[in-house]
Amino acid sequence: MSKVISVVSRDVRFPTSLDLDGSDAVNVDPDYSAAYVLVTLDTGEEGHAFVFTCGRGNEIVTQAIDSYGQLLLGRDGDELVGNLGEASKRLVHDSQMRWLGPEKGVSQMACGALVNALWDIRARREGKPLWLLLSEMAPEELVDVVDFTHITDALTPDQALDILRRGQGGKAERIAELQAGGYPAYTTSPGWLGYSDEKLLRLSREAVADGFGMVKLKVGGSLEDDRRRLGLVRHELPQLPVAIDANQRWDVADAIEWVSALADFEPYWIEEPTSTDDILGHAAIRRGVAPTRVATGEAVHNRIMFKQLLQAGAIDVLQLDSTRVAGVNENVATLLLAARFGVPVCPHAGGVGLCELVQHFSFFDYAAVSTSQEGRFIEYVDHLHEHFAEPVRIAGGRYAAPQLPGNGAEMLLDSRLRWSYPDGAGWREVGDRAAVTEPHMTPAEV
Amino acid sequence: MSKVISVVSRDVRFPTSLDLDGSDAVNVDPDYSAAYVLVTLDTGEEGHAFVFTCGRGNEIVTQAIDSYGQLLLGRDGDELVGNLGEASKRLVHDSQMRWLGPEKGVSQMACGALVNALWDIRARREGKPLWLLLSEMAPEELVDVVDFTHITDALTPDQALDILRRGQGGKAERIAELQAGGYPAYTTSPGWLGYSDEKLLRLSREAVADGFGMVKLKVGGSLEDDRRRLGLVRHELPQLPVAIDANQRWDVADAIEWVSALADFEPYWIEEPTSTDDILGHAAIRRGVAPTRVATGEAVHNRIMFKQLLQAGAIDVLQLDSTRVAGVNENVATLLLAARFGVPVCPHAGGVGLCELVQHFSFFDYAAVSTSQEGRFIEYVDHLHEHFAEPVRIAGGRYAAPQLPGNGAEMLLDSRLRWSYPDGAGWREVGDRAAVTEPHMTPAEV
């Protein structure tokens, strides 16, 4: 028996809006941020996790983590870490707090961070990176961590068990293959809207030289610019697949029209063509822009929404995110749903720390769930990795397998302190550059 | 020109879990609460609003209100109140904070409270209750407050304008009719799961005597209990329509099976049979339980979800809620969507203050949007009204038209202070009754 003795959150923000890294048609000026949490047991064990946000409002998420953290304080750490399905339900289905979602937005993300911190403790106890812990768990134990509430019309526990049992065959070989050769990546680094054509092209050439299998361009600001930028890359690097990403910029009819106007450049997929809530809209867009693939997921708030995107035949590519949903458990549910429908998962990453976190799900997916890398890549963006205890390692356009025990969330203490908002030393230095904290509306709305 | 000089939130909670008022299959022990906000201009004008919650976590919503409030501080109050469409977009589409939803959960509800506080100032300026302000606004001005982002595939500004222009005919007569005779209500007061059969039957008889057109029973705890309770009311009061409400208790197949097992009692509607996010699930359930009507909405987080419920033919009754979405503007959008699809709106109320708020939307709907009361009632629950500046008035089973200028949210200052959590005098008195704050999981999950 052990005891949860503290749950401490911290508001960490990086002033990325100063450089327009991460600018797209909707997120014009993000300050990549982490609502960070450290869960400590009386054994001295620590679990790290965070929720990614775009800056303003990060303090709402730290408040939510503190509030949900009250449900863990004083509880038996062994019981929580030994039964992570139950631990997650205790947070997500709290009878009073459920109203705040249910299962969506700030409250869902805060639950996810706490669940992930418990998984971090579990993985450290077993001395394994999260992906390997998951890959080596028995199918029965994995099914126990999944919350099947409201998804049994698409995936029952028995069906999940079947998928995972099939995934046992050849698993050791696939784990060895991942350890040796990693997992394919694509890169979004060249394609931010704020970058010049010259920078776009230079970074795209570097992406090819670095062995990435695809690049992604942000679109949706101006059709003329989109045609020029997409044309430039496709003309200069004709063998390089190029995905495009509108970050929910369009209504349904606009999406079909705009994507059709880019069809001659054969984009590999169109990502987030419209509101992430719009299941029927995605289905209509997919029919309207075929054969261009439709992808979404980074802002999809729970397994029930993913279930419907799959049931409606609305997506070709499922892009789960590591800090949007209620943690590892819900992402395992989503991987199983995707496998059941035969849709490839290409996780969302970028921001700060999302690459470090999300890679674990693709490694696990290959080892034990879909057992395929066909049509699958993990997104890669090359900034802010230096702040983490185990930065992602990319070689030959592939993610190398994480090695350190844990879930990948641990940010260096120096970084956490320096970029604590608003009082960290880093923020005191940039504080006079007022643009960072000046509110804007998204261009779609101005 | 005027200026927003303060945005002050307050955590107000009532210890309703002590009496099991409001107990249902999912919300077993709510402490009805308000994340209250007061927006003050330098003219001395005040706007009141709140977000309803079930207790724990109310402090997350007050934090969110404070955070979004920063976007209003120092701004021109006349500009905000004069262009409420723009004011809403400035909050909802803030480029960094949008990530926290987008447009859902805690962040959406907080935006809604601030938007509603601005409407309160506007209505007080014009000396009208909100419903009358809305009813007397020109169609063009109403369309200007609606955010059509991501709904134009179902409702364009021109289509909205057509609906509102048609609603001009006979409007003055309907307003006079509402002033004289009010709007029909149904009551949920008899049907809480925590009540004995005797109390259920006594309160149902009182409901008939009081002239209510329908009662609603909570179901989903045990099928045997549901059959007994529903049978009892239907047998003793055969002329009284009885709706049932499962508060999202079931998966899709369970919902169809359970509701079918209650079909011989001819429930008027089944409310929230499954996850409020499950559009396709509601559509399947509606097909599976026909001719029993399917109703949902109190936890539907934005106009994009309502759009799809309507597009999918998933609901017979739309139950908008006054504090779940981004305020008056988004509820106007939802009323217009419902009118476009010909689906009656029967708003959700109860909790604390929800009756006081939501009545305005039905009065407006009748005066200027659907222009019908056919198959429409406002929910009524008879507790906690004494805390408001203008408590709802019910006569002959109908809501009387609110008279005081404003949106109906103003809670008496004494009540706000007494039930401030955790330091108000009321909470100091009940504080030793520990059951109030002890976390539980929902029975579905235990």
From TrEMBL, chains A, B:
PROSITE patterns: MR_MLE_2
Domain Mandelate racemase/muconate lactonizing enzyme C-terminal: 197-292
Enzyme class: lyase
GO MF annotations in UniProt: L-fuconate dehydratase activity; magnesium ion binding
Pfam families in alphabetical order: MR_MLE_C, MR_MLE_N
Cofactor: Mg(2+)
Protein name (Swiss-Prot/TrEMBL): L-fuconate dehydratase
Organism whose genome encodes this protein: Intrasporangium chromatireducens Q5-1
Lineage of source species: Bacteria, Bacillati, Actinomycetota, Actinomycetes, Micrococcales
